[in-house]
Structures are given as structure tokens and as C-alpha cells.
Amino acid sequence: MEKVKIVLKSGKDQSIRRYHPWIYSGAIKKIYGTPAEGDIVEVFDNKGSFLAVGHYQPGSIAVRILSFIEVNPDIGFFRERIEKAIKYRKSLGLTENTQTNVYRLVHAEGDDLPGLIIDFYNGVAVMQMHSVGMYNLRMEFTAILQELLAERLIAVYDKSEGTIPYMSGISARNEFLYGNSGPVIVTENNFRFKIDWVTGQKTGFYIDQRENRRLVMEYTAGKNVLNMFGYTGAFSVYAMKNASLVHTVDSSSSATELANENIRLNYGDDPRHESYQADAFEFLGNIKNKYDLIILDPPAFAKHNNVLSNALQGYKRLNMKAIEQINQGGIIFTFSCSQVVTKENFRKSVFAAAANTGRKVRIVHQVVQPPDHPVNIYHPESEYLKGLVIYVE
Question: Residue 370 sits in which domain range?
Fold first, then answer.
């Protein structure tokens, strides 16, 4: 079948020539043919020169680019891309690591596979597709993983029900595409965690905070630690290694139960830890001089630019409360996982929060996502996780 041809408006090809992997609908001059969502399309400039090939989707992002050279994105094409992603993780020392058996195997644009996420949990690959083009290939991806991972692969679980664009009309459902498995126990830097991809957020675990959790551990010796938005309690598990006490707070009772379970997995019934089901802002309002280290890792406050201003105010308010309340000489680990919030915007929000409190604040570290969540240098949007470690006098 002949591919659909998309022609861009004059001057709208510059970002593509700089290898940005998205084409916005406003850049399109004409579409020759009637592509269905997820179809392969070829993109040309206004003078007829080939630019790229990718998956079509109606909406703001009209094409997610797969290649900037003329290729046929068949199963061999995707096999090669996934194999390169696995080799990259091997070069990081992750695939054969006895201390860590949970990592991101494919990171969308960061691995030149826009719309595809694959996380590896001690033998179980959890896939999440964010485009119909990738979703239509889920069985092909499953076969590729079986081939490339061989005996290391126990099961493949598709968790795309909540990530496929809702206007696509596709009734995606979360299910095993290969094998079967209940929740598994994984190790991360020798700590143990229970992973339940069926009920858990994202693919079951916030893998992207692995290195930042390890950094937390270096600052917790003898300290009273507060882990806000605790979810699985992963930060709390690391903090418990050296802390005097650790409190985990989340608005969800199932999250606090999971946090307690992960603490028991690593420390048994240790009285240094307690969990609280509470609203974050209310809890932070009444903790004056109680904690020496506070972790703020909220869910994304903004998924779209139209709510960016409100999100920045939310980060400002959250950080202001923590800076006001923390002990003198305290340390705050504060994060944003909102893709539309830039590092500069986030830093300005924390700056404004600090200024409003009148306390002296130093930046100790500026932190990002780990290397198994690589940032495509041509796609700054893939650098979604940003954080500051600050010292409060």
C-alpha cells in the first residue's frame, strides 16, 4: 500500500531539519490521502524534498517521527531499534546487575521509538504505548522481546489502557500478551520492592528516581525524615538505612499500605517508620521543627501547557510550606516530573518559595532522570524529571 504523503508549509521544516521528532498539525500544508490514526506517513517540505517517515495521529502532534531517512519501518526496523536500546542498557551495567533487576528498557523518543515505553521488572516486561501506531505493533514487540531477552523473559504485560489517546476510539485493555505473573519482588541497589503493575501507577514503580533515592540515603544519617507523596515508599526504604525516623505520607490508603509492605520487606517491623494517609498541603502546615530532611516528589502538576501557570503556583506553594517548616540546617529534595515544566521554570518556583519565607537557601545538587531514561538531545521534552536538593538555614 502506498504511504500517505504529508507536505509541510514553507519554513515549517526547520525543527525537522534539526531532528526534532514531532510534527505539529499547524505545520502541515496538505495531506495527500486519508491516513487513519497510527498509519505510516512520509513527510516532505514545500519543495518536495523528503524529510521523515513516522506514525500519523490527529491532534496537536500530527506525526511522531520514526526515521529521518527513507526506510520501511517493518518488524526488522523495530527489532533493530529495540536491540540497540537493550545494548545501551547493557553498556550501563544494568542488564547483568545482581544488585538491580528493575530498569527502563525502552524510553520512547530517548531510544528513537516515540510513543513506546518498556520497563523491565525482574523478568516481566511492562509495555505502555502512548500512540496508536505503537499500540498496533504490540504483538510484534512482544515477539521481539521474546527473541532478544530469551530465558530472561517471564512475561509481557500491556498497560496501555490509560495512555492511548482517548479520541482514537481504540478500546485498549491491560493484559498479558505473553506468559503470566503475579506481583514480583525486585531489587534496586540491593533494596527489595513489591511491584504490582496491575494496580500500580505508571508501569508499577517510579524507576526514574533510582539514582536520586540513592542520593537521599547519603544525607539521612541520624535525621528525622519526611517522605511526602510516598506512593510505594521507595524513598522511605532508602532513608531508613541511616535515619532516626522516617514518616511516609500519601493521600491514598493503598499507597501507604504498599509503603508499609516495602518497609517490612527490608526492615521487618521497625518502629522508626510510620505512614500517614493525609493531604500533603494540610500535613505540611503543622510540622514546625519536626523534620531534618523532607522529600517532595508529587505527581505531575501539569500535563499540558494550558495549566502551566497553575502548576508553577502549586510547586511554589508546596515548596514554601516545606521551607517554612523544616528544621534549621534541614535539607529538602524537591522534584517535578511535569514535562511542560522546564528546569528554569521549576527553579524559579522554588526560588520564589524561598524568597517568600525569608530563609537563606542554598542549592546543593541539581538532579535529573537516570541514564536508562535517556534524553534525546534533539528532543528537550524528553528531559521531564528535574529536581533540586536545597539546604535551608
Answer: 206-392
Whether residues 140 and 268 share a domain: the answer is no
Tell me how crowded residue 290 is: count the other CB atoms within 10 A of its CB.
Answer: 14
pLDDT of amino acid 170: 84
- Alpha-carbon distance 329 to 310, whole Å? 30
Please write the tens of the pLDDT for every residue from 73-96. Answer: 999 999 999 999 999 999 999 999
Q: What is the mean pLDDT of the chain?
A: 94
**pTM, whole model, 2 decimals?**
0.94
Q: What total number of domains does the chain contain?
A: 3
Q: Tell me the pLDDT tens digit for each residue of 217-273.
A: 999 999 999 999 999 999 999 999 999 999 999 999 988 999 999 999 999 999 999
| Percentage above 70 pLDDT, the chain | 97
Residues 101 and 28 placed together within one structural domain of the fold: no
Cell of 74: 517493518
Residue with cell 504490582: 196
CATH of the domain at 29: 2.30.130.10
Taking the C-alpha atoms of residue 194 and residue 186, their distance in angstroms, rounded to an integer, is 6
Q: Which of the four pLDDT bands, split at 50, 70 and 90, describes residue 302?
A: low
In tens, the pLDDT along 9-35 reads 999 999 999 999 999 999 999 999 999
Cell of 28: 502541515
Q: 374-382: long-range contacts (C-beta < 8 A, 24 or more apart)?
A: 374/88, 374/107, 374/110, 374/111, 375/110, 376/21, 376/109, 376/110, 376/112, 378/18, 378/19, 378/20, 378/21, 379/20, 379/21, 379/22, 379/109, 379/110, 381/109, 381/339, 382/107, 382/108, 382/109, 382/110
Whole-number Cα distances in Å, 248 to 229, 230, 275, 310, 351: 8, 5, 5, 26, 26
Q: Please, are residues 173 and 149 in contact by the beta-carbon 8 Å criterion?
A: no
Q: What is the Cα–Cα distance from 247 to 33, expressed in whole angstroms? A: 58
* Rounded CA separation 194/265 (Å): 8
Hunting for cell 517517515 — which residue is that?
Answer: 53
